[in-house]
Amino acid sequence: MPAQQKALFLQAKHGHFVVGTREVPAPAAGEVLVKVEATALNPVDWKIQKYGGFITDYPAVLGEDAAGIVEEVGEGVTSFKKGDRVIFQGRLDNDHATYQQYTLITAELVSKLPSQFSFDQGVTIPLGLSTAALGLYNVKSVDKSAALSPPWEEGGRGKYAATPIVVMGGSSAVGQFVLQLAKLSGFSPIITTASPRNAAQLTALGATHVLDRHLAPDVLSAEINIGYDVLMPGGKLLITLGDAVDESKKAEGRTVVNVLGMVQLPFNVAVGASLFSKLFGLLEEGAVKPLHFEVLPHGLKGIAGGLKRLENDQVSARKLVVHPQDAA
Ligand SMILES: NC(=O)c1ccc[n+]([C@@H]2O[C@H](COP(=O)([O-])OP(=O)(O)OC[C@H]3O[C@@H](n4cnc5c(N)ncnc54)[C@H](OP(=O)(O)O)[C@@H]3O)[C@@H](O)[C@H]2O)c1
């Protein structure tokens, strides 16, 4: 293993992305060091560059999705060994982010990747699935989750049979995992909005009805208000962006829940660990499926252009994937 690695740095707040060199970090007790074979792009990274949130120390390494090979395990780790193929969600600090060739992760938040899936397929899963799962099933955090019973735990499969669910933006990465989890939970009907070209893809994941999202008002606040208006008494609106629901509309018994999809946050770890401990089995049986993807050329250098495409809404129903080991 080399002592140095290539990483993509956001040089300063609102600055540029530049490929540079940093040390390969050593795993602390309970952590594993992973050689990142594939990372996937997420909207939060262009938002960090543009708006400056989340990060205080620069230059900063971003990136929250990884698939790769365990290189070294820290003290006390028995569940993984060098050479295991794994997937996990990265964290926004330089030793744990994923836009680099090697990164660290707490072992309890790692899943092995079944051999029938490529790293490119595997890396489409962690952040999207985690966000969907935490929004629906974080029983430890009722103010940030619908706190339903997870379908990957005993007695959870099919538990919400005949309960309707509406998924706004079902072709987004998070939305596609909400559809899959809703199906596992038994929800029916599963109604979603997306561009019509993605209808078959979403039906295959569990949607029973795909509505053209362009038929609805396309400004965000209006769309969220529509989401709120379809809630039944006692229903919950889960949102991954700011709460734009008109205050005058908020009636008792219908709730807006702000989801925070970072699995490593203290109030998310328990459910995250439960999910990642079962993920290998869910993938093997086909209960959770990877998303469609497109591999970007030029390794880490390809990320900045990919993030621009995400920002410009030029990516539909697929993850953009990068290979950090490719020569930058
Ligand atoms: N709070 C959190 O922790 C958290 C976690 C993850 C993501 N997020 C946020 O959630 C959003 C989705 O993230 P993602 O990674 O799933 O995104 P993504 O996969 O990049 O989303 C792309 C999809 O969004 C759809 N879309 C674009 N504008 C839309 C609109 N106005 N209404 C409905 N759908 C729309 C497009 O659908 P069509 O191509 O079918 O038209 C496209 O397929 C982002 O804003 C992200 O920052 C928040």
From TrEMBL:
This is Protein TOXD. One of its GO terms (molecular function) is oxidoreductase activity, acting on NAD(P)H. PANTHER family: HYPOTHETICAL OXIDOREDUCTASE (EUROFUNG) (PTHR45348), ZINC-TYPE ALCOHOL DEHYDROGENASE-LIKE PROTEIN C2E1P3.01 (PTHR45348:SF2). The gene is TOXD_0. InterPro entries: ADH-like_N, ER, GroES-like_sf, NAD(P)-bd_dom_sf, Trans-enoyl_RdTase-like. CDD domains: enoyl_reductase_like. It comes from Grifola frondosa (Maitake). Residues 15-322 form the Enoyl reductase (ER) domain. Gene3D superfamilies: Medium-chain alcohol dehydrogenases, catalytic domain, NAD(P)-binding Rossmann-like Domain.
